[in-house]
Design brief:
This protein has about 120 residues and is of the alpha+beta class. About 30% of the residues lie in helices and about 25% in strands. The longest helix has 23 residues, at about 10-30. It is elongated, with a radius of gyration of 15 Å.
C-alpha cells in the first residue's frame, strides 16, 4: 500500500481487526477470563497493545528463533495481524510474557498524507 492511499479510517480498521483477533485468541487459547487493551494515539503513530495473564506458552515457542517466527499449527491469526501491520510499514510483535501470559503489540505509523 503506498503512502498516498493510507487513510486514518484504514489504519483504525486495521487496529480494530488486530485487537479483535488478539482478544479472540485470548478467549480460545489463554485459559483466562480477561485481557487488557491499550490504544495510544501518538502524533506520528497509532500504537496498540493487547495482553493477558493466561497460561504459560513458553514451551509452545521452544525451538523457534523468536516469538515473531512462531506460527501455531492451527489458524492464521498471528500471520494475519503481521500482514495488516505490514501494509502500513508498521511494527509488530507477539509472544509470551515472562512467567505467564501473552502480548501482541503493533505500531501503525501516521503521516502527513493520512487523511
Amino acid at each position: 500500500m503506498s503512502a498516498g492511499t493510507r487513510t486514518l479510517a484504514g489504519i483504525e480498521l486495521s487496529a480494530y481487526r488486530i485487537i479483535q483477533e488478539a482478544l479472540t485468541n485470548i478467549g480460545r487459547h489463554a485459559r483466562t477470563g480477561s485481557g487488557r487493551v491499550r490504544v495510544d494515539y501518538r502524533a506520528d503513530a497509532l500504537a496498540i497493545e493487547i495482553t493477558d495473564d493466561g497460561v504459560d506458552l513458553g514451551p509452545a515457542f521452544a525451538g523457534t528463533e523468536s516469538a515473531e517466527s512462531y506460527e501455531p499449527p492451527y489458524g492464521h491469526g498471528l500471520a494475519g495481524m503481521r500482514e495488516r501491520v505490514g501494509l502500513y510499514d508498521g511494527e509488530f510483535s507477539a509472544g509470551p510474557l515472562p512467567g505467564r501470559g501473552f502480548r501482541v503489540a503493533a505500531v501503525l505509523p501516521l503521516s502527513e498524507r493520512v487523511a
